[in-house]
Specification:
By secondary structure, the protein is an alpha+beta fold. It has 3 domains: 55 residues, RNA-binding S4 domain (Structural Genomics Hypothetical 15.5 Kd Protein In mrcA-pckA Intergenic Region, Chain A); 92 residues, 2-Layer Sandwich (Alpha-Beta Plaits); 79 residues, Alpha-Beta Plaits (2-Layer Sandwich). The strands form 4 sheets. Strands 7, 8, 9, 10, 13, 14, 15 and 16 form an 8-stranded mixed sheet that branches. The chain has a 4-stranded antiparallel sheet with strand order 3-2-5-6, with no helix packed on it. Strands 1-4 form a two-stranded antiparallel sheet. Strand 11 and strand 12 form a beta hairpin.
């Protein structure tokens, strides 16, 4: 079966698709004994011998866990400061696992932990538009002006944030609580958006990934995802991809490409 090399590596649990692309460019991957540094290389998993850092790459059994991350843990596999890592909460796992997406150290909530690079790519990449829902608690009374700003997008150092949904708002003089739903999340984006609007975040908790949620899963606990839950995540991401192909912008681009091909001089 012919597959792209980075997909094969991700499927073997070497890392996410993006990490595996970097490993290839760094010259850490060999096919039939020869180093490969070109992205997009296609291999036959039945006939080619693939190695990473000199060790044979073998397909691993896919595993999927839902973890309720506590505060004080980071979402990375390597850390020079030797801080607590979310993946270390899971015990007796022999496969190389990683979290899909990230929550900063002071945030808590749901994370998917897996060795499935394909699912990691689908749930992390903005084009798949898998929504994540967060419970947020801020100091003070949040105004309609601030909520409207969040909904329309806030200008930060990297540019304007995408519009977000703000729902289930409960306001008080000392604290306000609400939910925010994002299609993608850049580094500490929610905290930075609210800080720009003049609010300090006291609690930030991811409560839902797509349709996946588990209000009974306690902080620091984890469980295996069921087969149907994994399939629903795949289906959701793929459905969103199909929808994106038929947006007005995508339709116009398709028409332009078709017109260009039709009017190209041989």
């Amino acid at each position: 079966m012919l597959e792209r090399l980075q997909k094969v590596l991700a499927g073997a649990g070497i890392g996410s698709r993006r990490e595996c692309e970097r490993f290839i460019e760094e010259g850490r991957v060999a096919v039939n004994g020869k180093l490969v540094t070109t992205l997009g290389t296609v291999v036959d998993t039945e006939k080619n011998d693939i190695s990473f850092d000199g060790a044979p790459v073998q397909k691993e059994r896919k595993i999927y866990y839902l973890l309720n991350k506590p505060k004080g843990y980071i979402c990375t596999n390597r850390d020079e400061l030797d801080r607590l890592k979310a993946i270390d909460i899971l015990e007796n796992i022999t496969q190389r696992i990683y979290t899909i997406g990230r929550l900063d150290m002071e945030s808590e909530g749901l994370l998917i932990v897996t060795n499935d690079g394909d699912l990691a790519n689908k749930l992390s990449h903005p084009k798949f538009e898998v929504r994540k829902t967060y419970f947020v608690e801020v100091d003070g009374y949040i105004t309609d002006v601030a909520i409207d700003a969040l909904k329309s997008g806030v200008w930060l150092s990297f540019g304007k944030t995408n519009p977000v949904a703000v729902q289930h708002v409960r306001r008080g003089k000392k604290r306000s609580r609400f939910e925010m739903v994002l299609k993608e999340g850049k580094n500490r984006e929610i905290r930075r958006m609210l800080n720009d609007c003049g609010y300090k975040v006291q609690t930030l908790r991811r409560t839902k990934i797509g349709t996946l949620h588990d209000p009974e899963l306690k902080v620091s606990k984890y469980r295996k995802l069921t087969h149907s839950e994994v399939m629903r995540l795949y289906t959701l991401a793929e459905r969103n991809t199909q929808k994106s192909k038929y947006t007005p912008v995508a339709k116009k681009a398709k028409v332009r490409r078709k017109f260009a091909r039709k009017n190209t001089t041989p």
